[in-house]
Predict the 3D structure of the following.
Amino acid sequence: MSVPRKEDYSQYDISHFSDETLQSAMKNIRNQMEEAVQQGESLTSECMVQLSQQLDTYVLIAQIRKMRCVN
């Protein structure tokens, strides 16, 4: 069993992501996930886990951006 690693999200430079880019990227990942499910992929398959992790990254970037705008 592997130990989950803690991501270092400070490596992501969010300054070049526009809101539209983030939204488009997240929509693209969602579409890929929907297509994978329709093709029979289980939610725990490696493909779905990787897509979920990518989506998590973009969600975290959007949350960081929102927090920076509030402060």
Notes: Confidence is low (pLDDT under 50) at residues 1-6. The helical segments are 19-38, 46-70. The radius of gyration is 14 Å.
